[in-house]
Design a protein that fits this description.
With about 350 residues, this protein is of the alpha+beta class. The chain has helices at about 10, 25-30, 50-55, 70-80, 85-95, 150-155, 165-200, 205-240, 250-315, 325-350, and strands at about 35-40, 40-45, 60-70, 100-105, 105-120, 125-135, 135-140. Strands 2-1-3-7-6-5-4 form a seven-stranded mixed beta sheet, with helices on both faces. Helix 4 packs antiparallel against helix 5 (about 85-95). The protein is rod-shaped. One of its GO terms (cellular component) is plasma membrane. It is a multi-pass membrane protein. Keywords: Cell membrane, Membrane, Transmembrane, Transmembrane helix, Transport.
Length: about 350
Amino acid sequence: MPTPAHSPITAGTTCTGSEPGDSWLTEEVQTPRTRCYRDGLLVGEDFSLADVSEHLEAADSVVWVDLDDPGEDELALLAEELGLHELAVEDALSLGQRPKLDRYPDHLFLSAYSAALDPATSRVTTHEIAAFITDRALVTVHRNGRFGVDAVVARWDSSPDLAKNGVAFLVHGLLDYLVDGYFEAVEALDDEIEELESQLFVPTADQEQVQRRSFELRKSLVTLRRVILPMREVVNTLLRRDLHLLGDEMGPYFQDVYDHVLRAMEWTESLRDLATSILEANLAIQGNRLNVITKKVTGYAAIIAVPTAITGFYGQNVPYPGFSQEFGYYSSLGLIVGLSALLYVLFKRNDWI
């Protein structure tokens, strides 16, 4: 696979230039967010796309551009300016990609997802973000304003001492935000599963609700696993030295993100197995309760069969000891009570009723 060859010219064209023919792009893009770092210091923010090239004239400048709901024309012009591969542009337009990191001659293309758990429904919601990574620029693309860009910016602002590491600093802040979101979602799912476990052996618990909840939690864990599992390869690829993205200072930070991804993945796998066990245990408990009920009903049916048999025998229209005599009534009544009591004691002693 070819090694990215970054250049200041490519980075500068992350945004539209100042050519008259490009001015329409600035008007069409909906409130883009921009930042410029120079020598590790934030020197500009929320400037227009037309000013990006001016900010990148300095060799030590790094620019971030965030595009929310960009149109096809905007990304097409951006691809022409940056020399982006048509497949990467297509992925950024269509979204719906699996988490991945694609390498192209002049840039990297990142596709990833944020994740959060809705406590009301126990469902994991995901929001996709695509990113073009050059040596001096990071361009993020997402839809409908649902991705937490403000949280990513806050993550960058909390570590200003790392800003001197350029694009690697920006990419780390983005990945760190994503992975922390995975941990929060997994932790919330863990709490939900613990609560569900406590309801398993409660006699008054709504077993149908327990069954439905366990199925929803397992489905959410499958969704979360589908998001986290490919991120392991994404971060592992970024750690490779041949990408020339990481310096010595940022290496440990990306390694820390990689470790967190592995932990989140392992936690998700264990919770998925636990949710499956709860689902199976709930079915087994319902089966056991049904067996107990069936056993008790059978026991009482055996007791009821005694008076039925005796009264049926004494109801025969043929002579027998006590036929048409008063003592025959009392003897049959005694047999009914005595045998029924004996069966009840025996069944109770053997825990059959």
